[in-house]
Design brief:
The chain is 26% helix and 27% strand. It contains ten helices and 21 strands. The strands form four sheets. Strands 1, 2, 3, 5, 6, 7, 8, 9 and 11 form a nine-stranded antiparallel β-sheet that branches. Strands 12, 13, 15, 16, 17, 18, 19 and 21 form an eight-stranded antiparallel β-sheet that branches. The longest helix has 46 residues. 32% of the residues are buried.
Length: 513
């Protein structure tokens, strides 16, 4: 049978009565509002009304975009959205226009660079228009809330409103979901351009809750819907109001800002911040959700931005609740922190880098071990490749061959076989030294006596010589004992070994003389 084209429209009327407080597009953000940075780039004609009136966040009051009559083709206006995002529906408002409104309109969209040029035909350089809303009829002095059955899967940042053939439109609102601007590091997670949105509030009778997350600074000339969130007066001190903001992405919060600009005398007395984590759109639907107080009650002043450091900055949160005591108005709320996804990405990158470094280090260690093994193998194989030959000893000179046969103790013998003059000089030096060690003297004398040929007992007139001779000479045992008895016969209290040695050295001096 083949494919059959559906005749059903791609949109439906989200508010047929034009009286509904909430509707299917209430949960989306107006991407074409000047409050979030939308801008009119170019218009075909602005004879009776400026095209910038289309993107005003305030309600229309006899201000609209109106073109001249009898246009042979069609009038158009190109609007750059405040943030790129997917489209869910439109609000074409003709209130205040009765008889000068456009009879038919259509809307196209495209995604292009923000600094793209628009030509005289309403075409964006380097982009092609995609039809978002086909040509439809509009009525005078009414709102046309048209929701798409299925939001677009592609994101857009430019839209073109076409009037067929001419006329006027008071306001144009493009409802959709913001494509978050993911900046590196710390950012405002409670800003609409980051993907945040206000889920609910206890009261917004005097100021829209959506103004809390606008990126622009509040001004006294703004409408009540842009100036900030403001509640009605309460009559009890125990009363408090609150607003729940879903962050653009779950993150680790570091500080919050509560701005009371344009509120002088009607600001809250105090305010506190609570936070929670849930995967649902609204924490009120999560029975297991628990609120943590991350900023205690703080006194608020008029026309001032209050910067508060939060607690539990190592815990991820998805929603924050602004609680004001007892009531009043707050222009902006900002929650600064770092995205959980970004931190996880950084951690994964660090782990990957550490793993890569470990692999490289292991490869380097393996290569060095292999090189060492090759070097050891080549050194062990070297003797077998080069057989030893006796040529080197044969070529050495005779003097070199004789050196290994020379006794190693020749210098010692040369010192022992010194002349008599050297002996006398050393004896003289020994006498002049008063602090010489006596056992060392005996040892030196014993070494000298061992090198001399002893022929008679008269050469050993000293006591030390007699002792050495008694131990080394081959005399009978009786004579050795007699030699020792001569020392025993003397008075030991007077004649000690040291004293006898001293007298013997004096006798030796006289004998030599």
């Amino acid at each position: 049978m083949g494919n059959v084209q559906s005749s059903l429209p791609a949109y439906y009327n989200a508010d047929p009565t034009n009286e509904a407080y909430t509707h299917s597009l209430s949960k989306y953000v107006d991407l074409a509002s000047a409050a979030i940075g939308a801008k009119v780039i170019k218009a075909s004609d602005e004879r009776f009304g400026a095209a910038t009136n289309l993107i005003k966040p305030s309600e229309p009051t006899d201000d609209a975009w109106v073109t001249r009559r009898h246009n042979p083709e069609a009038d158009w206006v190109v609007v750059r959205l405040g943030s790129s995002g997917t489209i869910a529906g439109f609000d074409i408002d003709t209130r205040g226009l009765d008889g000068t409104h456009a009879s038919q309109v259509s809307i196209q969209g495209c995604l292009a660079s923000e600094d793209s040029v628009v030509d005289s035909h309403g075409n964006v350089e380097g982009a092609e228009w995609t039809e978002l809303l086909p040509r439809i009829e509009v009525s005078a002095n009414s709102r046309h809330l048209l929701a798409l059955w299925t939001p677009t899967s592609d994101a857009f940042n430019f839209v073109r409103l076409v009037l067929h053939p001419d006329g006027g439109v008071a306001r144009l609102r493009i409802y959709g979901t913001v494509a978050p601007i993911r900046s590196q590091g710390e950012c405002d997670l409670a800003c609409v351009t980051s993907g945040a949105r206000v889920v609910s509030a206890s009261d917004e009778a005097l100021g829209a809750k959506e103004a809390l997350i606008l990126p622009t600074q509040a001004s006294a000339t703004d409408s009540s819907n842009v100036r900030g969130w403001k509640t009605r007066r309460s009559r009890t001190d125990e009363h408090h109001d609150w607003a729940i903001i879903k962050l653009g992405e779950p993150g680790f919060l570091t500080r919050v800002e509560i701005d009371t600009a344009t509120f002088d005398g009607d600001q809250p007395v105090r305010a506190s911040i609570h936070a929670c984590y849930t995967e649902l759109e609204s924490p009120e639907r999560d029975a297991e959700c628990f609120w943590y107080e991350i900023a205690s009650r703080t006194e608020l002043n008029a026309n001032m931005c209050h910067k508060i450091d939060v607690q539990l900055n190592d815990v991820p949160f998805s929603h924050i609740k602004v609680v004001i005591h007892p009531d009043g108005g707050v222009s902006r709320v900002r929650a600064f922190g770092q995205r959980v996804a970004e931190i996880e990405k950084e951690a994964a990158r660090e782990c990957a880098e550490a793993a890569a470094e470990a692999v490289v280090a292991a490869e380097i260690a393996t290569d060095s071990n292999d090189s060492q093994d090759v070097a050891d193998a080549s050194s062990s194989d070297a003797p077998s490749d080069k057989p030893a030959t006796p040529k080197a000893p044969a070529r050495s000179p005779p003097s070199a061959r004789a050196k290994p046969q020379t006794p190693q103790k020749k210098p010692t013998l040369a010192r022992v076989e010194s002349s008599a003059d050297e002996t006398s000089e050393s004896t003289t030096l020994h006498k002049k030294s008063k602090k010489a060690d006596k056992p060392e003297i005996r040892k030196k004398k014993a070494k000298k006596l061992e090198s001399i040929d002893v022929k008679s007992d008269t050469q050993f007139s000293s006591r030390a010589g007699e002792l050495i001779m008694s131990l080394t000479s081959p005399l009978p045992a009786k004579k050795r004992s007699r030699t020792r008895s001569r020392a025993d016969d003397d008075n030991e209290s007077v004649h000690t070994v040291d004293s006898l040695g001293k007298r013997s050295r004096r006798k030796a001096k006289n004998t030599t003389a």
